[in-house]
Every structure is written in C-alpha cells, then in structure tokens.
C-alpha cells in the first residue's frame, strides 16, 4: 500500500469511528508518516493503536482526546512527543517501545509514565538547543594524549608533563562547519595503562567524538590502534573515530599505517579521518603541525552527531550550568535540590532532572544506595583518579587484591604519585561504595571478628593470575555420586559473529557473583583467579566458571543443575549485551558421546540453531568438528534457557511434596536428599520463569500477591457469582514474604479489600495459580536466606495465605467459559497471552493506587539486569 493510500484509508477509519462514537481505534501496520488532523474529533476514544507505522511526530491536537487511557506508539520513528500529551490526565498506558527517542525522553520513559509526564511538563515551559558532546582521547601511555588536548585548547606548551592517572577532563570549544555556532566539547583524556581499561569503559558514551592516538615511531601495532578501536566499538557500536598520529613535526617520521585496512575492518562510517599532528610548537615558527586541520575535523564530526542540537528544558540546562559553576567535585543532594528550587523547578521535576543527568553521564547519583543517596558527584574524573590510585597499588596486588579500608584511606589521603593531591577522609567511604557500584570490588567476610573489623575489600582486577592449589579439593575430577553435570559456553562474538574480547568481563563477574562465592561467609574459603571462579548455590549446586579464550565456560554439578546453569548464563548474557553494546553472547552446548574427536565435548553447537532445526522437525544436528550427527534433544539437555516450560504440571502434581520440602528448609541443620534438592531447584526455576513473564508490569507496580474472599464461604454458596469482595495482600519480591509478616507492628499495611469480577480472577489464574504452587517451596527457602527469624505461627500464616489463594482461584474458575479464561499454561509461550495477563495485573495496580499509592511501603528497586522488583524497605540496600 502506498503512503497516500494508507493516509486515505486512515481518514476513512477516523470518519467511521466518529460516526459510530467508537472508543477504540486500530491504525496499525499502515505505513503512516503522519496522523490526519481529524483524529482530534474522536473525543470518545479510550484506546488508540498506532503501532508499526512510520510516524516521525505526533500532532499536539491529540491532547483533545481527553478520555484517552491507552496510547500505543511502538515501532515508529519518533524522537520526541508533544508536551501536550501530559494534559491527558486519564492516560494510564503509553507505549513508546522501539522508537529512536531522544536521550532525555528515553531515560524518562525508562523510569515510567510519571517521569515522562514530568519531563513533558518541563519541556512545555521552555526549551533551548544544546550543542554539546564529549571528546574522548584514548591510546597507550605516553603517546601524547595530554599534550594533544592542551594544543586543542590552545594551552601553553608544557615540557615533561606527568603521566595521566585515571582521567583528566577539560573543555574544548570548536566552531561548527557552517559557522558561527560554538560547540562545547568536554575533552576526556584517558590514562593509557592497561589496568585502567576496564574502568575507562564506564565512561565511554555517546554523543562523543573519539580520538585514537598513536606514536608513529613506535608503529601502529605497538600503539595497539586496532585494539583501541575495537574496545570503543564494543562499548559504542555507532562511535565516530579519528585516528591521530602524534609527534608529526618537521623531520619526524610520518605516519605509517594501513588506512584502507582499518576502513575495511571497521567501516567508513566509523573511521572518519586520519591526521598527523605535533602538539609542540616549532622552534622557528612557533606553529603547531596539523592542529588547525584536526580541530576542523572534530567540529565536523561533532556537528553531525545525531544528538547535536537536541532541545532540553531551559531550566534544566540552567541548573546544569549552576552546578558546573560551583566547581565542586560533589554536592549534598539537598543542595542540588535547593539550586533547582531557586530556578522554580518543582521537586518532582528536580528529581527527574538528577536521575536523567545521572543516566546521561552529566553527574553521578545513586538514589537507592544508603551511603551514596545523599551526595551528587559532579566530576567523574575526580572519581576515576581515586580508583586509579588503587589499581596502581603494588601492595594491594601483592596481597592478591585484598585491601583493608585503612590502607585504601591512606592511598586516597596521600597518593603515591608526584603532583597528585589527596582527598578528604569523609570522601573515602564514598569512593569505596562507588567501586562496589561499578563492580570493581566487594567487601569480604572472615570468621575472625578482628579481621572483619578491618573492613577488607577484594579488588577484583588484582586477584592472582594462577589457579589456587585448593581448586582440586573444591572441584574434584568427577561429580559427587548422584549429581549430574551440565556444561554451557557463553561464546562472545562481534557483529560479524567473530570471537571478541569483552575487556574486564571476568573481573565484573567475580564481583557480581560473589554472593555465591565459596568464601561468602569466610573469605579464606574463596577460590578465584584471573580466569576462573568456583561458586556454590546450596541445593542448586556448585559451578566452575572459566574464561577460556574469549568465551566463558560454565559447568554446574547438582541433583538438578539446570536452575543454576540457567541463572549464571542469564547473568553473563545480560552483562555482555548490556555493557558491551557491540557484542553478543551466543549460548553454546558441547558435543556428547559418541564423538569422533579424541576429546569428546570439544565440538560446540549454538543452542539457537538447534532449536530452529528442531522446529523444522529435524531430530539430529551434525557436529562441525567431528562430523557425527547428534540427537538435538540430548544436546539441549545442556540448554535450560531454551527449554519450554514442561515442569508446571509435574510441580502441581507434587504440590504436597513441595510443601513438605519447603517446610524442611526452615528446620535448622535439616539435610535434604538429592531428590528433594532437585525439586527445590525446579520450583525455584518455575517461580523465576513466571515472575519474568510480567517483567514489564513491574515498572509500575508489584507482581506478587495473595488473595482470599472477604466472606469465606461466599464462593461455595453462590455458584453463579459475578463480583465479590476480596482481601488482597502484597508480598515482598525479595524475601517472598507477605507484608503483614514483615510489618508485625502494622499488620494491615499492604492489605486491601477490593471488589473483583469473576472474569478478572479467572484471567489471572493461569499465572497466579502456579506461582502459588511453587511459593510453597521457594518462600521458606528465600526467607531462610534473608535470615528472617520467623515463628512457627508466622510460617503457618504464610502457608495458609498460599492455600487460600489456590482455593480461591480454583473456586472462581469453576463454570467459567473458555472465552473468559486462558485455557492453559502453555499459552504463555504466546506474546498476546502474556500481554493479557499484564493488562489484568495493571488493573489491580490501578485499584490499589486509589487506596494506597505507596503499595504498602514497598519500594521499587532494580537488580543487576535492570529488572524492576518491589521489595520491603529493609531489603532495599541489597540492590
């Protein structure tokens, strides 16, 4: 269909909707590039679907649709939406997924509908055009990055500049190619030492112009030019890079680099030019070689960045300017709010401004961290330098990465480098907390109270190179009797599907997974080294992670290894694909016996390809190394992430056994059989699967609740009931305990009486019923893990809530037609069914909000995979 035809068809649909007084209008998949103005006349409209068109803007007149409650705009070409949308007071759902939103709006959208409204209201007041970007200089040590930055700034030449530790940030101003617009570039000079590379990636971000700097006299290989470009591309696939050779004055060796090879390898849209410069003025002419040309090239690249000229709320930019003028490395959070108040920025908008500025890298603030929430860090270079003092410390390296707080404090007070200033002692706990936030370190525990008093941390980058001798004891050559062993390989590849390095990945894994370390209670039992770690997850088994080449090999031994293997694979895959945007993590499974190789298991299969073949009714797949054809089902036994949900009915059939195993977990020193451990692991796996089905809904409200009729016998005695009053109880999604249990002084908090329809309960049943089943086992285990000391009566109360929920769902579903209920759990494989469950849950959120907008005091947090959870306040610090 042509665009003209699509537009005319849309006009006809609008005319028909106007004639009939329709409340829902579907304008999906029409290739629309604009919305007819007549749409503003549809004042009855409640739901508007504009999914999968080619819209680049939404008309402001849409604000006239005052009854609109749901607006679906996903899969279009929108960078902005009109501020007038904030006038739609009935709007409860705004879908902007899969649109190239500008960075401010995208970050507001990631925080929820309220944040979008706050952003739009700020935008409506007034906005300004922002011409600002980063200029990032990277390269090996002592190639002249600092001198180059000084030359671009027209600073006087300084002979014998000291080595850069961490990062130095200084502004550079250039003129846009068409003049006279000034572009402000924040020039980031990164220290070139290899130990800094994992840390520096934290600060790579768009919009930015990258300079890869090298010294011709040492050659491009010695300057690791390709490696630096690769490092940038893995973090920022759309990065724009200029290659700069230094020391290019008269009589010096001219650049010798294969330009075409670099362009062929990385693309002409990435490598935008080659320059040779000399930052030192010529003795005779006092001229700088190549700097003027480089400055012009930087201006052109910066001017063409898609974010250049982006509009932002004027008051927000005024606030950023005032923060910069303080020249303070950090400010108390309250002072930042005071600055916003003086500019008449309401508190809600000020909080959004700080949140978005954090996500965009203008400042650093962690609102959920008990140590960091009261400060706002304004100078990231100040932080990077403090971290560099630790990474350069020989004492900490010689101590296998262990450093107590007194030693770290000494480093920060008296840096071991000439010309570097120390930091006040009150900042030292903040530095340590930020290192933990950035997955650089974690606090360790010992059996000895005196050792614990030292507050010792492990700096993951400085752990030993070699395997410890104790590995053989913790990980014997064969599994324990009764345990099964499963293996998966996380193969890290670039956009060309070639093996790629995720710089610093294993250091981050050591920190992120330390809650499963063998030494989580006593560090002396830990087993880890630069390329390996042993983990333990109680009844879910023991794991060995090894960094082999660029891949991570995961081996799990347990009665039911699938659960722990699945979790670890998810963590690695998420970390790789979210932190290194240019990389992908392909899940691979090893070949099985019989295998034609001398070493069975060395051949690898990509799990996604096995699944695709199975869908095409091909039962076998050939090993690309040995040539043997293997059974796909047997190969996929090593791929729990890709298996369908086959355990739900089995778990429901074993419900009484599940309950008994859950009760055993609460008994001190109770040994579980391998069969019981396997059942717990399967329950764990199912609970996680069902909770993840409604991940999107967790942005706006909690997912975990129990329910029972207010009148206990009402459902039994009224078989034809349509609506009834129910008691809804919210649960903490961390401890898996109901709020009355966690609030014994206020047992009514998080408990609501709400009138619900039979149709609603029947619709939520296929999701909530299996959740209730597996809660019988996983709730006691989760509560035990949080060290909550609950009485037998409290556990009995939890069990009764679960039982009442299951009974209510069963009674409510009796006699309900198939049109009202989702027929089977298997339908969860279909996106439409999951969305249906989500709609039902959102209705509950709306009803609870009218009674209690705080959801019983539950606080929304994000886990390491940026998934939202709602947890009791005592567990917020866990996130």
Overview of the molecule:
- With 879 residues, the chain is of the alpha+beta class.
- The chain has five domains: 3-101, Alpha-Beta Horseshoe (Leucine-rich repeat, LRR (right-handed beta-alpha superhelix)); 102-129 and 313-378, Arc Repressor Mutant, subunit A (Orthogonal Bundle); 132-303, Rossmann fold (3-Layer(aba) Sandwich), CATH 3.40.50; 380-462, Arc Repressor Mutant, subunit A, CATH 1.10.10; 648-878, no CATH class.
- It has a seven-stranded antiparallel sheet. A six-stranded mixed sheet has the order 7-8-6-9-10-11, with helices on both faces.
- The longest helix has 28 residues, at 758-785.
- The radius of gyration is 30 Å and the shape is globular.
- Pfam families: COR-A, COR-B, LRR_8, Roc.
- This is non-specific serine/threonine protein kinase.
- Its EC number is 2.7.11.1.
- Residues 126-305 form the Roc domain.
């Amino acid at each position: 269909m042509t665009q003209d035809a699509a537009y005319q068809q849309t006009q006809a649909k609008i005319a028909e909707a106007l004639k009939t007084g329709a409340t829902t209008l579907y304008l999906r998949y029409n290739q629309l590039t604009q919305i007819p103005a007549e749409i503003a006349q549809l004042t009855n409209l409640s739901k508007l679907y504009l999914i999968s068109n080619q819209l680049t803007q939404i008309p402001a007149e849409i604000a006239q649709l005052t009854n609109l409650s749901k607006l679906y705009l996903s899969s279009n070409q929108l960078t902005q939406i009109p501020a007038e949308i904030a006038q739609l007071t009935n709007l409860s759902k705004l879908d902007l997924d899969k649109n190239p939103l500008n960075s401010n709006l995208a970050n507001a959208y990631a925080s929820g509908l309220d944040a979008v409204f706050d952003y739009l209201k700020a935008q409506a007041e007034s906005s300004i055009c922002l011409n600002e970007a980063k200029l990032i200089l990277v390269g090996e040590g002592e190639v002249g990055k600092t001198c180059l930055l000084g030359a671009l700034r027209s600073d006087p030449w300084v002979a014998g500049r000291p080595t850069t530790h961490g990062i130095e940030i200084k502004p550079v101003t250039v003129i846009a190619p068409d003049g006279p617009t000034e572009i402000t570039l924040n020039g980031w000079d990164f220290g070139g030492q290899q130990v800094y590379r994992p840390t520096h990636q934290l600060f790579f971000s768009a919009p930015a112009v990258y300079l890869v700097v090298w010294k011709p006299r040492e050659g491009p290989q010695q300057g690791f030019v390709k490696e630096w470009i690769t490092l940038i591309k893995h973090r920022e696939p759309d990065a724009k890079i200029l290659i700069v050779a230094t020391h290019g004055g008269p009589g010096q060796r001219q650049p010798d680099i294969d330009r075409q090879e670099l362009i062929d390898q990385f693309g002409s849209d990435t490598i935008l030019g080659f320059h040779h410069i000399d930052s030192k003025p010529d003795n005779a002419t006092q001229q700088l070689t190549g700097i003027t040309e480089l400055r012009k090239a930087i201006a052109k690249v910066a001017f063409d960045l898609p974010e250049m000229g982006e509009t932002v709320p004027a008051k927000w930019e005024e606030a950023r300017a005032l923060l910069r003028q303080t020249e303070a490395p950090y400010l108390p959070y309250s002072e930042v709010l005071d600055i916003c108040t003086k500019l008449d920025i309401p508190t809600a908008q000020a909080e959004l401004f700080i949140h978005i500025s954090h996500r965009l890298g203008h400042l650093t603030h962690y609102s959920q961290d008990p140590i960091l929430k009261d400060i706002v860090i304004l100078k990231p270079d100040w932080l990077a330098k403090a971290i560099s003092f630790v990474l350069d410390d020989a004492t900490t390296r010689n101590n296998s990465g262990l450093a107590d707080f007194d030693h770290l404090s000494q480093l920060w007070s008296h840096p071991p480098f000439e010309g570097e200033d120390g930091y006040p002692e009150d900042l030292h706990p903040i530095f340590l907390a930020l290192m933990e936030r950035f997955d650089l370190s974690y606090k360790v525990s010992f059996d000895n109270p005196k050792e614990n008093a030292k507050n010792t941390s492990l700096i993951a980058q400085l752990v030993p190179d070699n395997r410890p001798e104790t590995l053989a004891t913790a990980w014997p050559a064969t599994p324990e009797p009764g345990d099964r062993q499963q293996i998966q390989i996380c193969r890290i590849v670039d956009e060309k599907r070639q093996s790629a390095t995720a710089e610093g990945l294993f250091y981050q894994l050591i920190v992120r997974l330390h809650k499963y370390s063998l030494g989580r209670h006593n560090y002396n039992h830990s087993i880890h080294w630069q390329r390996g770690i042993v983990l333990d997850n109680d009844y879910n088994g023991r794991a060995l992670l090894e960094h082999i080449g660029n891949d991570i090999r995961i081996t799990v031994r347990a009665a039911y290894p699938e659960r722990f293997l699945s979790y670890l694979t998810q963590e690695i895959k998420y970390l790789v694909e979210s932190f290194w945007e240019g990389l992908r993590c392909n899940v691979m499974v090893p070949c099985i016996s019989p295998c034609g190789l001398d070493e069975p298991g060395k051949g690898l299969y990509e799990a996604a390809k096995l699944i695709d073949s199975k869908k095409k009714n091909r039962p076998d797949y050939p090993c690309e190394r040995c040539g043997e054809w293997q059974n796909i089902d047997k190969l996929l036994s090593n791929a729990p992430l890709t298996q369908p949900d086959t355990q739900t009915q089995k778990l429901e059939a074993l419900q009484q056994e599940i309950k008994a195993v859950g009760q055993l977990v609460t008994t001190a020193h109770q040994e579980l059989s391998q069969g019981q451990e396997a059942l717990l692991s399967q329950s764990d796996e199912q609970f996680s699967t069902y909770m993840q089905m409604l991940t999107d809904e967790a942005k706006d409200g909690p997912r975990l609740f129990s329910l029972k009729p207010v009148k206990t016998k009402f459902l039994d005695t009224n078989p034809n009931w349509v609506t009834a009053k129910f008691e809804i109880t919210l649960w903490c999604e961390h401890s898996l305990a109901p709020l009355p249990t966690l609030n014994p002084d206020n047992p009514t908090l998080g408990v609501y009486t709400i009138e619900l329809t039979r149709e609603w309960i029947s619709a939520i049943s296929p999701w909530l019923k299996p959740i209730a089943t597996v809660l019988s086992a996983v709730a006691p285990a989760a509560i035990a893990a949080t060290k909550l000391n609950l009485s037998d009566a409290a556990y009995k109360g939890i069990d009764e809530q679960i039982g009442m929920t299951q009974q209510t769902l069963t009674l409510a579903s009796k006699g309900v037609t198939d049109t009202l209920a989702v027929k089977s759990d298997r339908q969860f494989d279909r996106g439409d069914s999951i969305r249906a469950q989500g709609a039902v849950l959102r209705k509950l959120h709306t009803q609870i909000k009218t009674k209690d907008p705080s959801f019983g005091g539950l606080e929304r947090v994000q886990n390491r995979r940026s998934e939202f959870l709602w947890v009791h306040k005592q567990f917020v610090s866990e996130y």
